[in-house]
Specification:
single chain, alpha/beta, Arc Repressor Mutant, subunit A, globular
Length: about 210
């Protein structure tokens, strides 16, 4: 049996995933987590073969949680799942150690295929993303869009600014100092060419990054 932990902060999504996975006799849901703390506790106390991890896990950025998992459990397959298109997060997730990336809009049969693939030690991305990655071999690294120039932490701050959060609120949410968040904001503006928080909000909404 392949033991799976589902990490998503929406109960209805976790229930839906559980129902889909129940169609495969060799897959069993060993636990559910609604937060990063719950997930890390499950990994410490139970035996897990695959983690399905949402890119947005409550107030935590899934990529940062992925890095924690990769550091503590380097061989544990993690399938990232998100409402955001692959263009936004797939490459970042793979570079950070994910075994695969799948959109929440994908049909159930693709989710099952993805789980089976990563459980067997393989990688999973859609055919379209496979073609994009192939096209990038030997070419300039991704970075054609302004937000693709940001580091993972900068992107996290960028998205929160795009939700209308203040620097102080972001600092509290990410457990960072106000000075550090302000520094990230300055770098974000420089890298993206945006000039104001209003510009960030407009960009985030227009590019589906919220």
């Amino acid at each position: 049996m392949t033991r799976i932990v589902i990490a998503d902060d929406h109960a209805v999504v976790r229930k839906g995933l559980r129902l889909i996975l129940a169609d495969a006799s060799e897959l069993v849901v060993a636990g559910e987590a609604a937060s990063a703390d719950e997930l890390l506790t499950l990994l410490r106390t139970g035996s897990v073969d695959v983690v399905i991890l949402d890119v947005g896990l409550g107030d935590r950025d899934g990529i940062e949680v992925l890095k924690q998992i990769r550091s503590a459990y380097p061989r544990l397959p993690v399938l990232m799942m998100s409402m955001y298109s692959e263009d936004v997060y797939a490459i970042r997730a793979l570079r950070s150690g994910a075994s695969g990336y799948i959109e929440k809009s994908a049909p159930p049969e693709l989710l099952l295929a993805a789980v089976r693939r990563v459980a067997a030690g393989g990688k999973w991305v859609s055919e379209a993303m496979t073609e994009r990655l192939t096209d990038q071999v030997g070419s300039q690294p991704a970075g054609s869009l302004p937000h693709e120039r940001l580091s993972d932490r900068e992107l996290e701050v960028f998205r929160l600014l795009g939700r209308g959060k203040s620097v102080t609120e972001i600092a509290r949410s990410l457990n960072l100092s106000v000075k550090t968040v302000s520094t990230h904001r300055t770098r974000i503006l420089a890298k993206t060419g945006l000039e104001t928080n209003a510009g960030i909000v407009d960009y985030v909404i227009s590019n589906g990054l919220r």
